[in-house]
Structure formats: C-alpha cells, structure tokens
Amino acid sequence: MRIVKLSSQSVAFPSPETALHDPNGLLAIGGDLTPARLLAAYERGIFPWYSPGEAILWWSPDPRAVLFPAQFHVSRSLKRFLRNPPFRITLNHDFAAVIAACSYRPDEGTWIGEEVQQAYLQLHHLGHAHSIEVWQGEELVGGLYGVAQGRCSAVNQCLAALPTHQSVLYGRFAAILPVMEENWLTVRCLTLTLPGLEREKFPAANFCSS
Q1: What percent of the chain has pLDDT over 70?
Q2: At what angle do helices 163-176 and 76-83 cross, to 10 degrees?
Q3: Which H helix or E strand runs over 3?
Q4: How far apart are CA 118 and CA 122, in angstroms?
Q5: Structural domains of the chain, count
Q6: Which of these, 3, 5, 7, lies nearest to 21 by C-alpha position?
Q7: Hey, which family's this protein in (predicted)?
Q8: Residues paired with 65 in a beta bridge
Q9: Residues 6 or more apart from 125 whose CB is under 8 A from it?
Q10: Is pLDDT above 90 for 126?
Q11: Side by side, which strands form the sheet with 57-59?
Q12: Largest Cα–Cα distance of the chain, in whole Å?
C-alpha cells in the first residue's frame, strides 16, 4: 500500500482505514499545517508527527489510546495533596510557554519545531487548542496542551516535573471537558499510564466514526 501525497489545493485526507500497519498508522505525507487542514485531520482522528526540517507526516494508528474523563478517580492521597497544593493551576494562561516547554527535549529530540508551535498557536487563538499550566510562584513547572474537536480532545504533549503534576494536569483537563462538551481524550502513546485514569484501546474504525 502506498502513502498518499496530500494536495496543496485541498485539505481532504484519505480514509484512515488505508493507513499502513508498519509503521502503524502512517497515512499521508505533505500538505501544510494551516488551521483548516489541522481541524480536518483531527476531525477524522488524524494528526501530524514528524521531525523538524522533514516532510510533514500524517498518522492514524490502530488501535488508539483513549481516556474517559468520567472515569477519573481522585485517590485519597491526591485529595490530601490538593487541599494545600504547593502550586497554582491556570487554563489557557500561557499556551505559547507550554508548547515551547514541551518542545524542549535536549536528550531525545522533538517533533515540536517552530513550524508546529506556530500552527498550534494559531489553533489556540481560534479557540480550538487549549493549555493547562502548573506554576510554582512565577515558574512554569508543568503543563499540557491539546486540540478540542467534536466529542474528542486530543492531548498532544505533557510537561510534568513531578508525577503528581501529571495526575493533576490530566485530572484538571478531564474536569473541564464536560464544560467544553468533550467526552473523551485521546493520546498518542498506547503505553501511557496515569494514576486514576485508565487508558483503553479503541479500534481506529470506531474512533473515527465516534
């Protein structure tokens, strides 16, 4: 099966069912990161993932890792921690700082180059991408960002200095989703483990039709 090269004249994508099995989910190459194309992609369960300086690659892996916020369980230890947390949490306070911090991976490289940062910042300004920040004083010590589209919110990256921060971040994101009329989260990594929020494997066909 051949990878489809996207047209610059259209934001249409091939069916996710045509994605490669190896590497899992590789669907198309090329195109751009305009808001229209990104939203068209996320609407069908497709996302960009590539190294800076290389051609844009579009993915729709099967199965998908899905988290259901309604199932989020706050443990007693986390409840105690949240009664007097040593940090404050904000929503959409500094999206640019969060995505820039998430891109900093000196030992392993990153796919979040300047082009990607600017593209998601545009989505944020249009109201489609959101961030949650964790602050200790004036220092950003944790955060995540994601794209809300339809009933699903795609969490793209998480910056967490401590495991507790990660639980708080996803828990906070889960808490605001009903307000945003979102029902579930999808994450890139099938191996993600998070206390209080179990991941489930969702067949790509069901994912794209939900």
Answers
A1: 63
A2: 90
A3: none
A4: 6
A5: 2
A6: 3
A7: Belongs to the L/F-transferase family.
A8: 187, 201
A9: none
A10: yes
A11: 4-6, 26-30, 57-59, 47-48
A12: 55
Return the H-helix or E-strand segment holding 174: helix 163-176
CATH number of the domain that 114 lies in? Answer: 3.40.630.70
The region that residue 181 occupies, defined by phi over 0 for left and psi between -120 and 50 for alpha, beta otherwise, is left
Average pLDDT, the chain: 77
> Given a cut of 60, is residue 188 above it in pLDDT?
no
pLDDT value at 199 more than 90: no
Q: CA-CA distance, 40 to 163, in Å (whole number)?
A: 33
Q: Are residues 51 and 75 in the same domain?
A: no
Q: How far apart are CA 82 and CA 205, in angstroms?
A: 38
Tokens 């992609």 belong to residue: 41
From the list 25, 69, 68, the residue with the least C-alpha distance to 47 is 25
49 and 70 co-located in one domain: no
Residues 39 and 81 in one domain: no
For residues 118 and 103, membership in a common domain is answered with yes
For residues 182 and 52, the answer to whether their CB atoms sit within 8 Å is no
- Shared domain for 38 and 90, answered yes or no, is no
Given this model, what pLDDT does residue 83 score?
A: 75
**Residue 189 pLDDT class (50, 70, 90 cuts):** very low
pLDDT of residue 11: 96
Is residue 109 domain-shared with residue 96, that is, in the same domain? yes
Structure tokens, 99: 């995505």
